[in-house]
Amino acid sequence: MVAGKTSTSRRLARQCGLATIDLDAYIERRERRAINQIFAEQGEQAFRDMETQVLDEFAHKGPMLVSCGGGIVLREENREILKNNGFVVYLQVTAEQAVERVGDVSTRPLFKNLETARQTIAGRLPMYEDVASVSIDTVGKSINVVAQEIQEILEKEGVLCLRQG
Ligand SMILES: Nc1ncnc2c1ncn2[C@@H]1O[C@H](COP(=O)(O)OP(=O)(O)O)[C@@H](O)[C@H]1O
Ligand SMILES: O=C(O)C1=C[C@@H](OP(=O)(O)O)[C@@H](O)[C@H](O)C1
Ligand SMILES: [Mg+2]
Questions:
Q1: Closest ligand 2 atom to Cα of 108
Q2: I need a surface site. Which of 27, 53, 97, 98 has the fewest CB within 10 A?
Q3: Residue ranges per domain, the chain?
Q4: Which residues line ligand 2 (CB under 6 A)?
Q5: Which positions make up the binding site for ATP?
Q6: How far apart are CA 50 and CA 41, in angstroms?
Q7: pLDDT tens readout for residues 41-61
Q8: Which positions bind Mg(2+) (predicted)?
Q9: What percentage of the chain's residues is helix, strand, coil (to nearest 5)?
Q10: Closest CA to 71 of 109, 31, 112, 29
């Protein structure tokens, strides 16, 4: 949450000319309601079911940049989909930096305060480490800098090959 996944993938897609999808935005469009509304009306598990379904859908759609919600790693099924189908970039953030960035918390049903952010990050860490092909520390870096760093890694790893000139 608030690591910059949505904004950084948008930037990276633009600078590299990649197809991209943000799973949360896709769910919101499909459901015609906001994530916090889905949580309020049907609960977290209903949202998690939708999340697994759209992850599976896009995992098999050919090469594209998929931006996930931070809770995607909670289900083992999702972790297997990620590991088997993707090159996974884990954007690391501290709770302190997340609180500084967060802005309007009403759109983020699970974001409460510094202490819960700390607990969430610590609790999920082993799951992020399990799925990550590469980890990038985003603290103190702008969206542009993080996007550039990801591009360089993807090129180095042979995941992305951009034509010169
Ligand atoms: N590297 C960054 N530096 C400063 N602000 C950032 C950075 N990445 C994201 N933000 C800001 O933090 C907020 C959350 O970003 P977002 O892309 O929605 O994160 P996520 O999808 O991981 O929850 C947005 O207001 C965004 O502009
Ligand atoms: O961490 C989480 O459990 C969640 C993160 C959100 O996405 P971002 O990580 O893009 O904020 C969104 O999927 C939902 O509110 C649940
Ligand atoms: Mg997001």
A1: 15
A2: 53
A3: 5-156
A4: 1-2, 5-6, 24, 35, 69-71, 108-110
A5: 2-7, 108
A6: 14
A7: 999 999 999 999 999 999 999
A8: 6
A9: 60, 10, 30
A10: 109
